[in-house]
């Protein structure tokens, strides 16, 4: 009996330790971002400053291009996640429902794309996009991010489709639907958790991408949040409060999205795992 | 309503052949039941009629029109799935009206069709519910309702009752029969349950290992099974088989069982003198008599309420007897039994029926 | 309407149009994705491979000539590359091991129902949503004695002799990105393993418990064998991914101090973006790709052997 209680306590304590480890860095970011400059050094390791301020946030919003970065990132992340979700649900459906020659070649191709250093693609992509006028443009970024995220998203969507009985679209086809209508009206609505998971996953990835954004974008007008933050950091590298305020703002959309979808993520991977 | 004809229809998945040379003519308004052990290809055959599987060889016609290459949606047939395949995100009314909405029927037509079907099936109180909130029997009704609202050329059923408990299954079986009498629609019904087949069918197609074994009215299959497979499959408990040797006489043949019992038949069977044959008799046709011809050891007694199933050992082989005589419930070690000759079936070595008795 | 020809010949062959439409149907669904992958990943990959044999310098308009194996000869003599290779091993090995071990424990903890599990799960998985560059910056700040608490705490615990920035210490610097990477990557392992755990049928545990197996035996004889395929594939994919993953290092240390945290991936980045020598960068990337493919093959072969032995 006491053994069981001790186990329970140990279990909860371990969970708590993980939560603290996961959240502490984010908490610190938040703390420094609301600490007034004059307290920053005098109260260096205190867990919460004796008084707080939103001055840093105001400064960042007013005196930098952050609103632009924010808007750019939002455009890129939303467009990418919508594009990836549409494309990967089509491809995931094909992988889930059809047997056809070339299917394994497609799977192999998509696995290989997960293998090689993406850094390797930077130069060729730059050289390919620049005559098309797609460097230094958000459209170019969206295209590149869509391609990068589509393989994983396709596998994710496939595992969701695999969890939906074939009977349903067969019933719909007998009811008089073409396969595509059955896909759109019967199968897709049942995959909403999968779609949510894919949207969230891709949104977070596109929101965070740094390498290609750095390489393909120059100048402030089309810079995304990561690029903007990094230039900001190298320019104002002593003003920690402002940097962290900017960091917190970069964090919010990604975290919100993630919190919304994270339970579907486990669910979707479970569906895939059941299948083997 | 429509007739369906299959001519030398075959199916293989890759190199694995699952159906060969199926010939079947289904007349308008007929209720045909495909029955056979699981894995014998019944569902595959049904799905080929529906258009869900490609036809590897042969021809399928509906109302005289070759439909091999028609998509399911263009064949105008309805199907009830074993899993019901109800659309989980639609309520009962929407499930039933989906096919009509796809055909862009007017709102009034749809409403009338849905309410007619739901009235017939007693679904009126549930029209607004999602499938998740229904019991198994109600879901089954919705699946049926979805099929009947459109008045299709034919109904296909793939083991529609096998997910129900025994009582509901019986009830729905009767209901399907009633609906068929009322609508008179051509129906093809797949089941592995021979009782369902016997009770529902106007004609039964008995299948085994991808080929048709016998086609006929239920009682035909019961009375005159074409081969050992059908004899063993139709009827419960299943037919008893005993090996013997045929002895031809001037008027009739006699089967000599291994221990020397001689069973004279009422006719001459077309078999060579001395040929090995298999004798079959249904458990319900075996009689018990103090002066019976054959000794049997009693192994087990199973009362079913309606009657009693006795598990016997005859010549070292298991043998079943069904009787309604409760006196036989008394424990006893041995019995004497008779095999009435007008109830005997005789099969040759390759399993085909030899005599018409 | 009947099709007399078809009926008369008795052939079940479909009309050509229909056969073509049937064969094309899956491609209709897969085509957009395939086009995109081929255009934006495969073609650039092949181009990138060709750069490895050319003299490509972004700012030099006269570059572009084929130079054969010149880059590889340079590479063979490049000490910085060998150091980066050694660092990559260290970085990848430590990160994967810690992420996996901690991720597995977390998944096991979360697999048990308890009040507030949904919330706890959302919170512990949160680091995964943090953009990697921000995770890097965040940890760099935490290690910075001016602004972060970690050096002070570590000094107080006696781990450090003085509250200095470990990112500036050549002997300790690699731990900075590794810790950030572990923090960021635990959720990935935990989510994947949790999904696999939840797919194990519960009645197997019950049967084992009835058969008298204790918790440890149940873990060893049911949980681990069930998880093994997921573990193998996840570790394989993650190893490759982390070996290629340079963001954290670039943001936190930029390969420094004294190249002590330079891994191959960040070295490629340095060559490409700081020195704009794309030819050389591609040559290094090609070598890395070959090494990673060899590693993956090795794992797949070993796994196959193990499966066949059973
Ligand atoms: N898509 C398929 N691919 C390969 N074999 C199949 C497929 N569908 C069914 N089969 C095989 O065809 C045979 C008949 O299956 P089925 O028609 O479902 O049998 P039944 O409905 O009589 O139980 C089985 O041996 C089954 O394994
Ligand atoms: Mg079946």
TrEMBL record, chain B:
Presence of keyword Lipid metabolism: no
Localization: Cell inner membrane
Pfam family membership, one: ABC_tran
The entry's keywords: ATP-binding, Cell inner membrane, Cell membrane, Membrane, Nucleotide-binding, Transport
Keyword Nucleus: no
Entry membrane topology: Peripheral membrane protein
Span of domain ABC transporter: 4-234
Protein name, UniProt field: Glycerol-3-phosphate ABC transporter ATP-binding protein
Lineage: Bacteria, Pseudomonadati, Pseudomonadota, Alphaproteobacteria, Hyphomicrobiales
TrEMBL record, chain C:
GO cellular component: plasma membrane
Residue intervals of the ABC transmembrane type-1 domain: 85-299
Topology versus the membrane: Multi-pass membrane protein
UniProt keyword annotations, A-Z: Cell membrane, Membrane, Transmembrane, Transmembrane helix, Transport
Domain of life: Bacteria
GO biological processes: transmembrane transport
InterPro entries assigned to the protein according to its UniProt record, in alphabetical order: MetI-like, MetI-like_sf
Entry's localization field: Cell membrane
Residue intervals passing through the bilayer: 27-53, 89-110, 122-143, 182-201, 222-243, 278-302
Family of this protein: Belongs to the binding-protein-dependent transport system permease family.
Designated name of the protein: ABC transporter permease
Native species: Xaviernesmea oryzae
């Amino acid at each position: 009996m006491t053994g069981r209680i001790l186990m329970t306590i140990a279990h909860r304590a371990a969970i708590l330790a993980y939560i603290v480890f996961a959240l502490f860095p984010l908490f610190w970011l938040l703390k420094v971002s609301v600490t007034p400059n004059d307290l920053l050094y005098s109260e260096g390791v205190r867990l919460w400053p004796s008084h707080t301020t939103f001055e840093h946030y105001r400064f960042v919003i007013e005196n930098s291009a952050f609103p632009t970065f924010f808007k750019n990132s939002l455009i890129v992340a939303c467009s990418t996640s919508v594009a990836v979700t549409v494309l990967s649900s089509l491809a995931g459906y094909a992988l889930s429902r059809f047997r056809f020659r070339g299917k394994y070649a497609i799977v192999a191709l998509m696995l290989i794309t997960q293998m090689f250093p993406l850094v390797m693609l930077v130069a060729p992509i730059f050289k390919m996009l620049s005559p098309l006028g797609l460097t230094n443009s958000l459209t170019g970024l969206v295209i590149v991010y869509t391609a990068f995220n589509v393989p994983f998203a396709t596998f994710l969507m496939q595992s969701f489709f695999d969890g939906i009985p074939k009977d349903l679209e067969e019933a719909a086809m007998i009811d008089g639907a073409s396969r595509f209508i059955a896909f759109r009206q019967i199968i897709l609505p049942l995959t909403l958790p999968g779609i949510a998971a894919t949207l969230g996953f891709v949104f977070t990835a596109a929101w965070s991408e740094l390498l290609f954004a750095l390489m393909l974008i120059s100048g402030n007008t089309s810079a995304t949040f990561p690029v903007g933050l990094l230039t900001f950091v190298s320019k104002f590298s002593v003003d920690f409060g402002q940097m962290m305020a900017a960091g917190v703002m970069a964090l919010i959309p990604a975290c919100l999205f993630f919190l919304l979808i994270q339970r579907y993520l486990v669910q979707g991977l479970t569906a895939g795992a059941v299948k083997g | 309503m429509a007739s369906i004809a299959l001519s030398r229809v075959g199916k293989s998945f890759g190199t694995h052949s699952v159906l060969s040379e199926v010939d079947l003519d289904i007349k308008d308004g007929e209720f045909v039941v495909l029955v056979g052990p699981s894995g014998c290809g019944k569902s595959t055959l049904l799905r080929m009629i529906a258009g869900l599987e490609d036809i590897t060889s042969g021809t399928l016609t509906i109302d005289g029109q070759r439909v091999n290459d028609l998509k399911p949606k263009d064949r105008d047939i309805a199907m009830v799935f074993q899993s019901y395949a109800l659309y989980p995100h639609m309520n009962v009314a929407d499930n039933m009206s989906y096919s009509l909405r796809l055909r862009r029927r007017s709102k009034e037509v749809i409403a009338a069709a849905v309410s007619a079907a739901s009235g017939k099936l007693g679904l009126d109180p549930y029209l607004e519910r999602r499938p998740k909130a229904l019991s198994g029997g109600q879901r089954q009704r919705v699946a049926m309702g979805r099929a009947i609202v459109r008045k299709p050329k034919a109904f296909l059923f793939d083991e529609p009752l096998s997910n129900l408990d025994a009582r509901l299954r019986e009830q729905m079986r009767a209901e399907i029969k009633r609906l068929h009498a009322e609508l008179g629609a051509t129906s093809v019904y797949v089941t592995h349950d021979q009782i369902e087949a016997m009770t529902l069918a106007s004609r039964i197609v008995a299948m085994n290992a991808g080929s048709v074994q016998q086609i006929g009215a239920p009682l035909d299959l019961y009375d005159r099974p074409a081969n050992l497979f059908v004899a063993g499959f139709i009827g419960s408990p299943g037919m008893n088989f005993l090996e013997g040797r045929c002895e031809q006489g001037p008027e009739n043949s006699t089967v000599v069982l291994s221990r020397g019992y001689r069973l004279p038949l009422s006719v001459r069977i077309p078999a060579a003198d001395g040929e090995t044959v298999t004798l079959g008799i249904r458990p319900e046709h075996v009689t018990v008599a103090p002066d019976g011809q054959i000794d049997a050891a009693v192994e087990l007694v199973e009362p079913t309420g309606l009657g009693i199933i006795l598990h016997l050992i005859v010549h070292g082989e298991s043998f079943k007897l069904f009787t309604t005589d409760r006196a036989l419930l008394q424990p006893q070690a041995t019995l004497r039994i008779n095999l009435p000759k007008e109830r005997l079936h005789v099969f040759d070595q390759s399993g085909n029926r030899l005599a018409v008795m | 309407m009947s099709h007399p020809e078809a009926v008369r010949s008795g052939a079940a062959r479909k009309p050509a149009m229909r056969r073509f439409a049937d064969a094309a149907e899956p491609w209709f669904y897969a085509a957009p994705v395939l086009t995109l992958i081929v255009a934006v990943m495969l073609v650039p990959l092949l181009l990138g491979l060709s750069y490895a044999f050319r003299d490509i310098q972004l700012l030099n308009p006269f570059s572009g000539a084929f130079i054969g194996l010149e880059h590889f000869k340079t590479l063979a003599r490049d000490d910085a590359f060998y150091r980066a290779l050694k660092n990559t091993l260290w970085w990848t090995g430590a990160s994967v091991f810690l992420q996996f071990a901690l991720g597995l424990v977390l998944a096991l903890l979360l697999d048990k129902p308890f009040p507030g599990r949904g919330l706890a799960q959302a919170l512990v998985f949160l680091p995964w949503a943090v953009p990697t560059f921000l995770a890097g910056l965040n940890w760099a700040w935490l290690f910075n004695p001016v602004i972060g608490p970690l050096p002070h705490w570590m000094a107080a615990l006696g781990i450090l002799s003085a509250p200095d920035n470990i990112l500036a210490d050549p002997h300790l610097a690699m731990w900075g990105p590794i810790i950030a990477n572990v923090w960021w990557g635990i959720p990935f392992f935990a989510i994947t393993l949790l999904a696999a755990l939840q797919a194990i049928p519960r009645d197997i545990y019950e049967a084992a418990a009835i058969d008298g197996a204790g918790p440890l035996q149940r873990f060893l004889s049911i949980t681990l064998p069930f998880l093994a395929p997921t573990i193998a594939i996840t570790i394989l994919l993650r190893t490759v991914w982390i070996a290629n993953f340079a963001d954290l290092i670039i943001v936190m240390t930029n390969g420094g101090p004294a190249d002590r945290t330079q891994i191959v991936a960040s070295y490629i980045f340095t060559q490409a973006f700081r020195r704009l020598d794309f030819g050389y960068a591609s040559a290094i990337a090609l070598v890395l790709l070959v090494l990673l493919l060899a590693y993956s093959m090795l794992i797949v072969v070993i796994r196959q052997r193990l499966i066949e032995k059973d």
